């Protein structure tokens, strides 16, 4: 079962090619995107997530072409950026409700266990402007992981989170990777090993 396919992806910034002719095809599992700072990990993830338009090549998510059928393709993925995208005035609960409303869902069956596992229950009523960086990150992770999307794209998911949350992230990836694809950028070798992830290395 193919969940994410990239065919001859290429990106050029200011006349310099960041990568070219990048092709892969993944079914369920865990893939760690690694490489030096500036190798293009975040750029690749934003292309796959449909956050930034493709320059060269094509992407299909859940069999849906990202350029030709963007709504169906994006419905098949969840995107967890490195930095919080929530409004500062929103509470944790309001943010989660907004994300599920945007996905056309009123509830997420996995949500309660994720809130518990990531230890964010005490922060649900807090506004993002008053949260620590790690707590914001945990809400981003929970919003993506609680979706039923078969493809979960995460930019540096362990950045800033504590050991308990990291253990829960690893457990969620290990448990879910039989049916879903988790593709995440990281510099964290320990997490890659604990998740049993396959490494996709972007050359500098
Ligand atoms: N919109 C843009 N315009 C011009 N250059 C860009 C743009 N986006 C990214 N870049 C450049 O592309 C390169 C790759 O950046 P990217 O953030 O994808 O790397 P990364 O592998 O995620 O790095 P890190 O490990 O530091 O997070 C960098 O040199 C960056 O400055």
TrEMBL record:
<dbReference type="GO" id="GO:0005524">
    <property type="term" value="F:ATP binding"/>
</dbReference>
<dbReference type="Pfam" id="PF00005">
    <property type="entry name" value="ABC_tran"/>
</dbReference>
<dbReference type="InterPro" id="IPR051782">
    <property type="entry name" value="ABC_Transporter_VariousFunc"/>
</dbReference>
<keyword id="KW-1003">Cell membrane</keyword>
<keyword id="KW-0472">Membrane</keyword>
<protein>
    <submittedName>
        <fullName>ABC transporter ATP-binding protein</fullName>
    </submittedName>
</protein>
<keyword id="KW-0547">Nucleotide-binding</keyword>
<dbReference type="InterPro" id="IPR003439">
    <property type="entry name" value="ABC_transporter-like_ATP-bd"/>
</dbReference>
<keyword id="KW-0067">ATP-binding</keyword>
<keyword id="KW-0813">Transport</keyword>
<dbReference type="InterPro" id="IPR027417">
    <property type="entry name" value="P-loop_NTPase"/>
</dbReference>
<feature type="domain" description="ABC transporter">
    <location>
        <begin position="4"/>
        <end position="204"/>
    </location>
</feature>
<dbReference type="InterPro" id="IPR003593">
    <property type="entry name" value="AAA+_ATPase"/>
</dbReference>
């Amino acid at each position: 079962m193919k969940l994410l396919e990239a065919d001859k992806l290429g990106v050029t910034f200011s006349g310099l090619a960041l990568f070219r002719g990048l092709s892969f095809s993944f079914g369920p599992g865990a893939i760690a995107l690694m490489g030096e700072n500036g190798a293009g990990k975040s750029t690749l993830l934003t292309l796959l997530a449909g956050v930034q338009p493709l320059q060269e090549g094509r992407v299909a998510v859940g069999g849906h072409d990202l350029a030709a059928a963007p709504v169906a393709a994006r419905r098949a993925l969840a995107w967890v950026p490195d930095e919080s995208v929530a409004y500062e005035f929103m509470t944790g609960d309001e943010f989660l409700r907004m994300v599920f409303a945007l996905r056309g869902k009123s509830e997420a069956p996995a949500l309660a266990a994720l809130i518990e596992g990531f230890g964010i229950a005490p922060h649900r009523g807090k506004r993002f402007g008053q949260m620590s960086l790690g707590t914001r990150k945990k809400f981003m992770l929970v919003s993506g992981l609680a979706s039923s999307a078969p493809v979960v794209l995460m930019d540096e998911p362990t950045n800033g989170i504590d050991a308990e949350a990291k253990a829960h992230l690893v457990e969620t990836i290990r448990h879910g990777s039989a049916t879903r694809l988790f593709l995440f950028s990281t510099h964290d070798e320990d997490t890659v090993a604990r998740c049993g992830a396959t490494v996709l290395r972007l050359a500098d």
